[in-house]
Amino acid sequence: MTIDWVLILEKILLISGVLVISLVVAMYSTWGERKVAAIMQDRLGPNRAGWIGLLQPLADGGKLFFKEEIIPGSSNRFLFILGPSLAMMVACMTSAVIPWGDTLIIAGHTVSLQIADINIGMLYIFGVVSLGVYGIMLGGWASNNKYSLLASVRAASQIISYELAMGLSLIALVMLTGTLSLKEIVEQQRHGYWNFVYQPLGFVLFLICSFAECNRSPFDLPEAENELNGGYHLEYSSMKLGFYLFAEYINMFISSAVMASLYFGGYCFPFMDKLGLDHNLLTILGTAALFFKTICFIFFFMWVRWTIPRFRYDQLMRLGWNMMIPLALANMLLTGAAILWKQGH
Amino acid sequence: MQALTNRAKPVDRRPMTFVERMYLPAIAKGMAITFKHIFQKKEVVSYPEQKREFSPVFRGLHVLNRDAEGRENCTACGLCAVSCPAEAITMEGAERKPGEEHLYREEKYAARYEINMLRCIFCGFCEEACPKDAIYLTETFAPSNYKRESFIYGKEDLLIPMPGEKKKA
């Protein structure tokens, strides 16, 4: 048995590339968030560190690294450190199944721009996203602080409630495409319309649920600054706090990329096969298109955050269980009926 | 109860309609408002580079005046300290020695004159109380500092420079 060293090298390069890119995007999301908040409130935002404040994330990161590291005496030390590490790791893991582009042909060798094209890609994403709640839960519980505990309980129940609706809204998409592999879903959209056209309700439900899964406003109850003093990361300082905040931005980036891949054609863009361009060039353009879509979604996340106030907890639960899940079920039923009708049964 | 103004509006307690319960139209409306603000004028003055103009009646940091020959006007009469509602002014008088006529205008002068800028409320009563035109409020304000002690301004901070001489920073 021979080991395909080229494949291993290629995958290692790809993994490091994707990791670095998601970290950089997350870094500049913090800058983008402050900039978007500022311009929506008629301010200027960070503009002192570097040109239009572009060095601000580096300054923030440097500050977080050099801050004093405090571990509360009454906390569970092991779990306290495990919390942010888990949050960060889980946030980085999801990017493995996202097709970042089509294939590149380098010296007769075909290189896929997807780390792992597994045929259960969507299930993998669900599994990993569900793990994300452990980071918050462990961190909040290990802090031994009532605000942190309350916040992590909130986070757990919120994420579980919205995961149901999220899964149900995706089942309709799976019924339509007949596959769980993200690469195939994207390829199907290359020639036809984007899935958004077939699944408008499913997309809206998925969008709302991903806001809830990312703990973004208006579903940011786990970190409600003004009621829970910051929520589950209340006792955290230094880079451990940085990890929590960073993981949130990575999650936002990844869920934007997932939404772009599932509903907005991923790396496909209109008329891409009619341009008659070189295959490699087309792949690079496709990756750029995916990043453009992702950044639009990130902007949307921020836009919503600086517009809509936070839900009350009972409103959040009622929305999740009484509206999202019935709507997702109805969407599933309609999709199923439409598929059967089309097949002529 | 009789309405105090004619602008009172009754509270609408009707249950929400279906469209209102969907939240989404209201959210879209709100998001249109925030989006509009992206293109609006930014209400920001980038402070150290740009400065907002003060009104002509602005009262800022004090100065101690000199007369046309460069002699200190202050005679340490204490009227400013008496008039000060915040009790920010402290002074100590001293007698002018022979040979110091070019420094102080009258026989008595302030050997120590301190204003605590953290106590001062910049009301300008000291300026009004002064019979010798010795204290004036300018159009600058006290710069920030790390120490409370640095906000007690002594004579060296307050006195305007001698004519033809630059004040050290």
From TrEMBL, chain B:
Q: Which UniProt keywords apply?
A: 4Fe-4S, Cell membrane, Iron, Iron-sulfur, Membrane, Metal-binding, NAD, Oxidoreductase, Quinone, Repeat, Translocase, Ubiquinone
UniProt family annotation: Belongs to the complex I 23 kDa subunit family.
Where in or outside the cell it occurs: the entry states:
Cell membrane
Q: Per UniProt, what is the membrane topology?
A: Peripheral membrane protein
Q: Where does the record locate the signal sequence feature?
A: none
- What enzyme class is recorded for this protein? translocase
- Where does the chain bind [4Fe-4S] cluster 1? 74, 77, 80, 130
Q: What cofactor requirement does the entry state?
A: [4Fe-4S] cluster
The species this protein belongs to is: Chitinophaga oryziterrae
Stated EC number for the protein is 7.1.1.-
Subunit record text? NDH-1 is composed of 14 different subunits. Subunits NuoA, H, J, K, L, M, N constitute the membrane sector of the complex.
Q: Does the keyword Acyltransferase apply?
A: no
**By its UniProt entry, which Pfam families does this protein fall under?**
Fer4_7
Which GO molecular-function terms appear in the entry?
4 iron, 4 sulfur cluster binding; iron ion binding; NADH dehydrogenase (quinone) (non-electrogenic) activity; quinone binding
A GO biological-process term: aerobic respiration
**Name assigned to this protein:** NADH-quinone oxidoreductase subunit I
- Tell me what reaction this enzyme catalyses: a quinone + NADH + 5 H(+)(in) = a quinol + NAD(+) + 4 H(+)(out)
**What coarse category fits the chief subcellular location reported for this protein?**
membrane
Q: How is the cofactor bound?
A: Binds 2 [4Fe-4S] clusters per subunit.
Q: Name the InterPro entries for this protein.
A: 4Fe4S_Fe-S-bd (IPR017896), 4Fe4S_Fe_S_CS (IPR017900), NADH_quinone_OxRdtase_chainI (IPR010226)
A single Gene Ontology CC annotation of this entry is: plasma membrane
Ranges for domain 4Fe-4S ferredoxin-type: 62-94, 111-140
Key word Ubl conjugation present: no
- Residues that coordinate or bind [4Fe-4S] cluster 2: 84, 120, 123, 126
> PANTHER family, from UniProt?
NADH DEHYDROGENASE [UBIQUINONE] IRON-SULFUR PROTEIN 8, MITOCHONDRIAL, NADH DEHYDROGENASE UBIQUINONE IRON-SULFUR PROTEIN 8, MITOCHONDRIAL
